[in-house]
Amino acid sequence: MVWKTISKKLDENEYRLTPQREVILQVMIDNRGKHLSADEVYIEARGKSSNIGIATVYRTLEKLASIDVLYKTIFEGGKYRYELSLGESHQHHHIICLQCGHISEVEEDLLHNLEIHLEKQGYKILDHELKFYGYCPQCNPKN
Amino acid sequence: MVWKTISKKLDENEYRLTPQREVILQVMIDNRGKHLSADEVYIEARGKSSNIGIATVYRTLEKLASIDVLYKTIFEGGKYRYELSLGESHQHHHIICLQCGHISEVEEDLLHNLEIHLEKQGYKILDHELKFYGYCPQCNPKN
DNA sequence: ATGTAATTGATAATGATTATCAAAATCAGG
DNA sequence: CCTGATTTTGATAATCATTATCAATTACAT
Ligand SMILES: [Mn+2]
Ligand SMILES: [Mn+2]
Ligand SMILES: [Zn+2]
Ligand SMILES: [Zn+2]
Fold first, then answer.
1. For the CA of A102, the nearest ligand
2. Which of A59, A138, B92, B122 is most buried, taking the most CB atoms under 10 A from its CB?
3. Assigned domain for A67 exists
4. What is the pLDDT of residues B91-136, one digit of tens each?
5. C-alpha span between A110 and A91 (Å, rounded)
6. Contacts A–B by Cβ distance under 8 A
7. pTM greater than 0.85
């Protein structure tokens, strides 16, 4: 199912599924829910295929993000991270634990009001990105 | 008024107001509402004082952000930007125009609901950061 | 004044990402 | 199946922002 959806996206964008790209995609699929940096993907991809260059990893991640197969975002620390993004066009938020660094997700989209408000002011909102910082349930001193 | 508030913050944190730091702060005050990168601050600071090192600019911005005189945030493109942040402890959002790159601000804080929701799940939310991407009123094709 | 600690600035080092370019793989037509 | 054109790859160099280093300057406390 996942692969079928991805293949379709690749076809639509005339993007060939080379062995290297397949390995990289498999890494992303194996890590659904996680947020991987380019070098983390590189390490895992080497484990599977052993002769894959870091440049190819960067190129592939970039390309896959541009056709919305991956979602690319930058976190504090200034490095980009990627995750599989199938279909979810728009709302996707993060809670970053200031203690353990764990990144969890918020699916709720309660930002609609705010967007409406801004559009009334003349803006056209296409996307948004929201990050919460605090403590996860494990690290919350209150728990 | 602004300077008084800042001086107090510096005192509280035993942070000396050297000539260089004063120049950097003046640059930030002169640019209220804008979001400056370290090298932009550096350029402007040189204009005022001429013998100030880039290292000092980085150090000073970092320190001032850590004591909440400045607000530091990273935008797409992976570089940090700073702006004066007096008192506003928590909510401060951005609208980034995908056409002209202009960054404007949203003061509204309609995220309270979402925070409450997360705290019920065990999280402790300390801060959040929200970025909207779209077109500003000038660039909105509809206007 | 004087010794100690903090600050500065030039510059080297780092880390992530991007650019370059020749070699390898893939493709389309014959 | 060949074959020349195009795409992709991987090693490596280049870039860019930020951080670390360290000797020299400055400020502070006695
Ligand atoms: Mn996510
Ligand atoms: Mn702002
Ligand atoms: Zn945690
Ligand atoms: Zn605009």
1. 3
2. B92
3. yes
4. 678 999 888 888 888 876 678 888 898 999 999 998 888 999 899 9
5. 10
6. 110
7. yes
